[in-house]
């Protein structure tokens, strides 16, 4: 070979083999091997092209061996080389491809969720920690009428409200009535702080996030729940009305012996009861401290002219006697008898009309017209030797007193003869024997007695009511009403004016004191075992009555009603002495014994002291208030067979009233 120098054998057979220039090279390139060195030393290389080289002398060189595959893998596929493990923090590492640096997401992507979790946990802890501390108590910052009850248990909050708030609400209300001032105490209005209802308004238990925030940063103001007992306040207003009412007086003509005496009509003034209840209630609930009550005028229906005309007619009425005639028999009503039973009263239409009490007038003359043995008689019972005996009814003959009253009114206003023909007819008894003989009235089933001071006006009223009810029968299933049986207590019925507590005030009313008769009857009914339908306890405790078993009676509002729930009739016997009244009920005994279980007296309240110089002032002894429970228990055969629902009575403290007499000074 021309210009070819000698071939030097290299000391390193690989010195002439260049290294790969890229990390991604797949096959090493081997060039310029020295003569006599075969490529096979690197491994066989398939499919390498066969080349023939010429030597220097023109001869042929050995064929070039096929390049070898040093790291054969799956046929047709070559996996990428495994990169070396990264070394964090080494210089130049940032130049490596991201996929080879870190397979995890970027740091910013991991940090944001972590921050959110921490924020949520902090918020939850910020709520839960104070919430747990506040749970089980009234929410902090809660105030009722200026009293802070936040953070207290329900019991502690109730005690604090009773101690601090109840005292503030116990302020009385001053009422103005026609220029005069009266004081209404909270107990007279039935005012009570509803502690439970008030506290139930307060947030408690496990607080919500909003409540926690309010408890930490603000306050919760609550209005105290205060109730007014409408029935109690109505009775108090009724007591005020009795003292201030001036009912209009209708014109009237009556006789004083044989001289007609006229009473001219007069205007009246009445307390507006409904308005008074509303105004006083509003004053207490809004702590106003004062209220003005309305007195409304009341006009009579009759006029002075009506009275003048009636007076002239009255003189004509007694100008001559009246003669009653029947079958040749005559009885005369003298002018004195006519005058004693004749009055001119309002007819309800703006005029005056004669009113004649014929029944009372006949009492003295009817025997001249019929025999006493012919008079009718109602069936009843009489107690003979401690046992009831039936007195049969009897039909009789008599004068119709209602017809006679109409005839007298017609005759005395006319100019005709003053003879009134009367006719005796058969008069049937109002109560027949058949109605009472099989009622089973055989034994004393209930009896009670109360006492009173002798010779007082109230004693007359008690005795009068007993006389009206003695001998009355109550049939099986019938409900007895004391007000319905007796009616309104009036002077015409024999009642007189006496003191009675009405709405917390001692006032003089016609029929005062009859609550004692109602109390006596109630206890007889209690121990006889009959149903209590309606009764209202007295406002104040009186030692002469059993605690929790007294009754207030006032026509027509306060009544005593009881039902004969037995299969037998009941006979009422009412007797009186100068200092006592007894009510005995006769029927068929159903129980061996009836017991009154009384709880100890509790919740004592002190009474206040007052002085009064008002006209007609009546002194009153102070009495503290208290609460008591009474339960009626029924026994038969030595065992308890029934008991009524517990009856709770709350007595108000009775103010001690001292009457003072004002004296003028010169």
Automatic annotation (TrEMBL):
YoaR-like putative peptidoglycan binding domain span: 316-420
UniProt region (Disordered), positions on chain: 1-83
Keywords annotated in UniProt: Membrane, Transmembrane, Transmembrane helix
Chain segments annotated as transmembrane: 111-133
Leader peptide range in chain numbering: none
Protein's recorded name: Vanomycin resistance protein VanB
Organism expressing this protein natively: Nonomuraea cavernae
């Amino acid at each position: 070979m021309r210009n070819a120098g000698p071939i030097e054998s290299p000391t390193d057979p690989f010195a002439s083999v260049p290294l790969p220039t890229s990390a991604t090279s797949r096959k090493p390139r081997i060039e310029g091997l020295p003569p006599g060195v075969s490529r096979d030393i690197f491994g066989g290389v398939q499919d390498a092209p066969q080349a023939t080289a010429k030597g220097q002398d023109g001869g042929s060189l050995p064929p070039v061996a096929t390049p070898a595959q040093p790291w054969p893998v799956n046929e047709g596929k070559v996996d990428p080389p495994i990169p070396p493990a990264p070394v964090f923090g080494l210089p130049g590492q940032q130049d490596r491809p991201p996929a080879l640096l870190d397979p995890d997401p970027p740091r910013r992507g991991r940090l944001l969720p972590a921050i959110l979790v921490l924020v949520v946990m902090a918020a939850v802890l910020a709520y839960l920690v104070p919430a747990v501390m506040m749970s089980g108590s009234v929410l902090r910052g809660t105030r009722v009428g200026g009293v802070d009850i936040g953070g207290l248990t329900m019991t502690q909050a109730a005690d604090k409200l009773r101690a601090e708030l109840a005292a503030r609400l116990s302020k009385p209300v001053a009422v103005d009535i026609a220029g005069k001032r009266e004081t209404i105490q909270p107990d007279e209005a039935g005012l009570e702080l509803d502690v439970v209802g008030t506290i139930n308004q307060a947030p408690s238990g496990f607080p919500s996030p909003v409540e926690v925030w309010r408890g930490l940063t603000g306050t919760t103001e609550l209005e105290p729940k205060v109730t007014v007992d409408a029935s109690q306040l109505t009775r108090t207003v009724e007591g005020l009305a009795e003292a201030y009412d001036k009912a209009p007086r209708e014109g009237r003509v009556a006789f004083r012996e044989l001289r007609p005496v006229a009473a001219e009509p007069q205007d009246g003034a009445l307390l507006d009861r409904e308005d008074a209840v509303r105004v006083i209630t509003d004053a207490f609930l809004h702590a106003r401290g004062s209220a003005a009550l309305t007195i409304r005028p009341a006009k009579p229906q009759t006029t002075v002219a009506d009275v003048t005309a009636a007076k002239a007619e009255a003189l004509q009425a007694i100008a001559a006697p009246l003669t009653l005639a029947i079958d040749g028999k005559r009885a005369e009503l003298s002018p004195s008898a006519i005058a004693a039973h004749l009055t001119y009263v309002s007819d309800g239409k703006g005029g005056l009309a004669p009113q004649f009490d014929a029944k009372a007038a006949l009492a003295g003359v009817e025997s001249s017209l019929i025999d006493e043995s012919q008079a009718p008689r109602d069936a009843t019972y009489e107690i003979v030797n401690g046992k009831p005996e039936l007195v049969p009814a009897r039909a009789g003959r008599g004068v119709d007193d209602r017809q006679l009253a109409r005839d007298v009114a017609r005759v005395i206003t006319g100019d005709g003869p003053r003879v009134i023909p009367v006719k005796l007819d058969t008069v049937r008894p109002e109560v027949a024997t058949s109605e009472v003989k099989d009622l089973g009235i055989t034994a004393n089933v209930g009896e009670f007695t109360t006492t009173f001071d002798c010779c007082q006006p109230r004693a007359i009223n008690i005795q009068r009511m007993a006389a009206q009810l003695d001998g009355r029968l109550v049939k099986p299933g019938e409900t007895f009403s004391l007000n319905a049986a007796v009616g309104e207590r009036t002077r015409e019925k024999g009642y007189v004016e006496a003191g009675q507590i009405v709405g917390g005030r001692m006032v003089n009313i016609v029929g005062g004191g009859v609550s004692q008769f109602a109390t006596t009857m109630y206890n007889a009914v209690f121990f006889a075992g009959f149903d209590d339908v309606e009764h209202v306890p007295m406002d104040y405790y009186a030692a002469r009555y059993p605690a929790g078993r007294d009754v207030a009676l006032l026509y027509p509002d306060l009544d005593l009603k009881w039902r004969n729930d037995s299969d037998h009739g009941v006979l009422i016997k009412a007797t009186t002495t100068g200092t006592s009244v007894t009510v005995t009920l006769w029927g068929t005994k159903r129980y061996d014994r009836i017991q009154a279980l009384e709880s100890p007296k509790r919740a004592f309240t002190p009474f206040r002291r007052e002085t009064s110089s008002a006209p007609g002032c009546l002194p009153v002894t102070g009495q503290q208030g208290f609460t008591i429970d009474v339960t009626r228990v029924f026994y038969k055969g030595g065992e308890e067979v029934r008991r009524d629902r517990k009856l709770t009575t709350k007595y108000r403290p009775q103010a001690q009233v001292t009457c003072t007499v004002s004296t003028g000074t010169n």
